[in-house]
Design goal:
The chain is mostly helical. The chain folds into three domains: 254 residues, no CATH class; 177 residues; 185 residues, Methane Monooxygenase Hydroxylase, Chain G, domain 1 (Up-down Bundle). The radius of gyration is 30 Å and the shape is elongated. InterPro entries: Memb_transporter_dom (IPR049453).
Length: 727
């Protein structure tokens, strides 16, 4: 038996904070108000039609990020584009071929523009609907003002309702999750400082804080957030937030290595530096969660200082000092990225390397143009999906015009609803959608037979609207299509004289649209665009492998070129763009055998480490002075290049669980350096050998995180994370 408590618990599980219910209530109120007012108050069928579909499009087919006020401003800012699309569709509706050509252009342009970020991709469905609705007969350019007035009224009232009627709680943003993770990491680094200072009981507390920090950083993955709240835009702020996330993961990894391997070593100077790192991370976390503004001036925790007592340090202390210095540079990187995200240009302390924070030197339009240019290639998932959608919509518009379908708009609406990135997904959706449409059409036909009068549909419009917008999405695609079909029958029964055959027209139109979608999905990149991220990640690891070897051999006087490092930076930018698009589109994904964020972290670590080691260094400075440890580093770099290349070769095909982990045990370079110092070496540059050794060891650990363990890839389904289809 159903009970009120059981229904409420079920609703809370499927709709936390009742966000969907709030939106459905807002949209139902606005839709009924504008429809009844325009249809029966002003007696304007065009105005009523566009007001109703303006409400549905702006509320159901848009997924906008931000707080209610931000979403309202975005809707109002998009109004001019909606007017242009309605005007274009109205003018082109006179000729089927002109409307079809317009559909091809608009369909592709709107879809591919979504690569710029969640706001544009969130408005894409509404933009498509406005052109589609206007491009169908009757050809009435004289009624264009009524159409524009209806849409303007609807958008305006939806924007007001977003702010004033049952606004939901503010969504959790990526910056807030990242800020919480940064605070946890700061607490953990502070505890690690106590460990290195030799305080009793500090190690146990550090392990507790380590577990909390690891969990917080895991929760800060973009895949754990709603697609609308992920930092995926091409703007400077989102670039900086993604960099801060990568830097935080590197900080946590360095701290974890210290706790696991050097907890027994006492080094008060390194402990003091860790405390400064913890304070810097704490300030960064406060800035991200919004409790404290970022400082306009960069205050680095370290200027790459050498430990004061390095000549008398033990081998373990040398290793700890170098590791803490590396952690401090990561913390500085996080602090700089957070300041940039907060709006500061950070000119006081320019980052090491010409490619670090490269987006600071670009204007906002150039950043968006670069993102768009990355995707204007047939290899891009966005290009493939945009072309597939545009061709399907154009074909549907042509067929609807040739067959003179009375409600051809429904054909294209079915394609917008059902088309997926792969043929297999589209076919699966096809079956569910047809089932739901059949159920809704049957209920609608029965309703039209029993209650042919228009008054019935005037009365039940609010109920069908509430069910379609609030209940259908909670019950799945079958019920969503069934209730949407019932809503459309209820609406069109009031717009034009009709009978029970309207339900059959709806079913036929959805069948035609779904068939066109399946055919388009089968003929145009049927495996989908999911292989794009695999391709980019593989390329990043492959060129990164050469950059590792190139960096070390340059220091060993075996080559002076830095082409591979530059190529790795370019590959990193391409992989980042694909990663962002992947998270813009992934909603109900499957687990993957590749940790995409770990792959980006590995590429980032290669570029930043190589730039830091090569800046100011003459080729061969290490080999000329200390040939024995340098030769060992060269051999390790060559071996690591092979390991990276091996993983890169497996990424496109998958099955990364077959790749053996990279050993990260000590190579003895630190001990060699210690013996050199004990033999009387006074040049502090000898410590660069340890820095190179730790960089290579860190790259090995980065690589080991790229393949997802089999248990996780099979049993773990992170909200919003996915494996690219077709891969």
């Amino acid at each position: 038996m159903w009970s009120w408590r059981g229904v409420r618990n079920w609703l809370q599980q499927r709709d936390p904070d009742y966000c969907l219910a709030r939106r459905a209530a807002r949209l139902t109120l606005v839709a009924c108000l504008v429809f009844y007012g325009c249809r029966y108050g002003l007696d304007s069928t065009p105005m009523a039609t566009y007001a109703l579909f303006g409400t549905i499009a702006s509320g159901v087919f848009t997924q906008l990020p931000g707080r209610p006020a931000q979403r309202a401003r975005t809707l109002l800012a998009a109004l001019p584009i909606m007017w242009i699309l309605i005007a274009a569709g109205t003018m082109l509706a006179a000729n089927t071929w002109a409307a079809t050509a317009g559909m091809l252009v608009v369909g592709f342009a709107v879809a591919v523009a979504g690569v710029s970020g969640p706001r544009i991709i969130g408005l894409g469905g509404a933009f498509q609907i406005f052109y589609i609705l206007a491009s169908f007969p009757p050809y009435q350019p004289d009624r264009l003002p009524e159409r524009l007035a209806g849409v303007t009224l609807a958008i305006g009232l939806v924007a007001v309702a977003e702010v004033t009627l049952w606004p939901g709680p503010a969504p959790v943003t990526f910056a807030q999750r990242l800020g919480a993770a940064t605070r946890r990491t700061a607490s953990y680094v502070a505890a690690l400082a106590d460990v290195l200072a030799g305080q009793p009981g500090a190690e146990e507390e550090a392990w507790r804080r380590h577990a909390r920090a690891v969990n917080a950083v895991e929760q800060a993955r973009m895949s754990r957030l709603s697609p609308t709240e992920r930092a995926t835009s091409a703007g400077r702020r989102d670039h900086a937030l993604r960099d801060a996330s990568i830097g935080l993961r590197q900080t946590l990894r360095s701290a974890g290595w210290l706790l696991r391997n050097e907890a027994a070593t006492t080094d008060r100077e390194s402990a003091d530096l860790l405390r400064r790192c913890a304070a810097s991370l704490r300030r960064s976390g406060d800035t991200l969660v919004g409790t404290e503004p970022a400082s306009p001036r960069a205050v680095p925790t370290t200027e790459h200082r050498r430990p004061e007592a390095w000549r008398s340090a033990t081998a373990a202390q040398l290793r700890v000092a170098a590791s803490v210095g590396m952690l401090a540079r990561h913390a500085d990187f996080v602090a700089t990225a957070v300041r940039i995200a907060d709006g500061h240009a950070d000119p006081t302390h320019p980052p090491a390397g010409p490619d670090t924070f490269w987006y600071l030197r670009r204007s906002l339009p150039s950043l968006y143009w670069q993102r768009l240019r990355f995707h204007l290639t047939p290899r891009s998932v966005s290009f493939q999906q945009a072309l597939r959608l545009a061709v399907a919509l154009a074909a549907a518009r042509l067929i609807a015009g040739i067959l003179d379908l009375k409600h051809g708009f429904w054909v294209l609406l079915a394609i917008l609803t059902l088309l997926r990135t792969s043929a297999a997904d589209t076919r699966a959706t096809f079956r569910l959608a047809l089932t739901g449409t059949l159920v809704g059409a049957s209920a609608g036909a029965l309703l039209l037979l029993v209650f042919p009068g228009q008054e019935t549909y005037v009365a039940i419009l609010p109920l069908t609207m509430l069910l379609a917008l609030g209940v259908g999405p909670l019950l799945g695609l079958v019920w969503a299509q069934a209730l949407l079909t019932l809503l459309l029958i209820t609406v069109f029964a009031q717009l034009t004289p009709t009978d029970w055959q309207l339900a059959g027209v709806r079913l036929l139109d959805v069948l035609i649209g779904a068939t066109i979608g399946v055919v388009a999905g089968t003929l145009i990149w049927p495996r989908g665009g999911g292989g794009e991220l695999r391709h980019r990640a593989s390329a990043l690891l492959d060129v990164g492998a050469h950059a590792i070897e190139e960096t070390v051999t340059t220091l060993a006087e075996r080559g002076g070129r830095r082409h591979a490092v530059q190529a790795t930076h370019r590959a990193q930018a391409l992989a980042d763009a694909s990663f962002c698009q992947y998270h813009l589109e992934s909603r109900d994904p499957e687990p993957s055998d590749v940790d995409w964020e770990a792959a980006l972290v590995a590429g980032h670590r290669i570029v930043r480490g190589a730039e830091a080691l090569l800046i100011g260094d003459r080729p061969g400075t290490l080999a000329a002075s200390w040939p024995a440890p340098t030769a060992r580093l060269v051999r390790r770099a060559e071996w690591l290049r092979s390991a990276y290349a091996d993983v890169a070769s497996h990424v496109p095909q998958g099955h990364l669980q077959q790749v053996a982990p990279v050993p990260t045990a000590a190579t003895g370079v630190v001990e060699q350096v210690h013996r050199i110092i004990q033999a009387g070496e006074r040049r502090a540059d000898v410590l660069r050998l340890i820095e190179v050794d730790l960089w290579l060891a860190d790259l090995g650990r980065c690589l080991n995180r790229v393949p997802v363990p089999e248990r996780r890839s099979e049993g773990h389904r992170a909200p919003g994370s996915s494996k690219p289809s077709g891969s």
